[in-house]
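To close the section, here is one more complete example, presented without commentary so you can practise reading it yourself. The ligand is PBG.
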Amino acid sequence: MNFQNQTTKNPNVKIGQAANFPTIRPRRLRISPQIRAMVRETNLTPNDLIYPLFVTHGRGVKTEISSMPGVYNMSPDMLAEEIHSVAELGIPAVLLFGIPAEKDPIGLENFADNGIIQQATRAIKETIPEMVVITDVCLCEYTDHGHCGILNVGGQNRPNLHLPEGYVLNDETLEILAKVAISHAAAGADIVAPSGMIDGMVAAIRTGLDSGGYEHTPILSYSTKYASGFYGPFREAAQGAPKSGDRRSHQMDPANIREALRETALDVAEGADMLIVKPALAYLDVIRTVREHFPELPLVAYNVSGEYSMLKAAAAQGWLDEERVALEILTGIRRAGADMIITYHAKDAARWLQNA
Ligand code: PBG
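Output:
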């Protein structure tokens, strides 16, 4: 068919004329893999990835998390091998979550010298000192009630505030967060990452770190963290599900984006060095908007547990091509504006990128 000579209903208009066809043909730049690679706008490299690890007490423990195939709970002695493989794949950093031996109302192990994260951090630093160790700073894995802060129980902490029963107390929690961050830095953590969405957490941790002599330890703040159903599998992995209630009194409403700018501005003013938007997939617009409003700070997106599990489940059924879709998702998160991505797919992705 010769489209050029074929006319539309109006004999004076040729097909494609208004769009400058045939002069302009975008397909010219898609003709070969080489040209496609030359004009690719977004790149994804292992250097952009951060790999989360779940560390638990014991020896020789490596238990797969049932809802997250390929992700394990590991004891500190199992970390050396894991860290070597992470480093060999060119992934610069790991993000540590700890499962304590015992839980209590305030989470004492969280800031104990021999706590699980402190042990894990030392083990990793002894194995590969260059591996960047980022530690999650929150209470939920450590408290017996599973909440991210100290709770208002029977109104005893602040009787005259009339806060709801079980409310996560803000300022009381800040003191603990500062202690935890100092303890992680003392164990050798390179970066601390507060994830509780407690007001003032960045300032409290900055002050704490500075007073402890850790003024060079950066804070990677979970500045925009939504109350998301996508954290389900993580809560199995970290055994950090709230025993009652939910996290909506501190994590953000998924419907809000202007509030993300407010939260981010506050964390920047309090001294955050890097920012997080979490989760990633249902929040690509938030990543883009935060990127545009805060161009001077590195931005990290958290491709969370549920996002990983969804793809794993579909791939196990043969419904989706895991490699292709995972790399498409990670590229999409980068294209939205994230500099780095925390992802359970980090090792797989690095391997796929190396073989590409
Ligand atoms: C809290 C924390 C959570 C995640 C990271 N840090 C759970 C929560 O807020 O309930 C979720 C990460 C994921 O789903 O992959 N310490």
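Once you have examined the tokens, check your reading against these statements. DSSP finds eleven helices and ten strands in the chain. Residues 136, 138, 140, 195, 231, 234-235, 240, 247, 304-305 surround PBG (CB under 6 Å).
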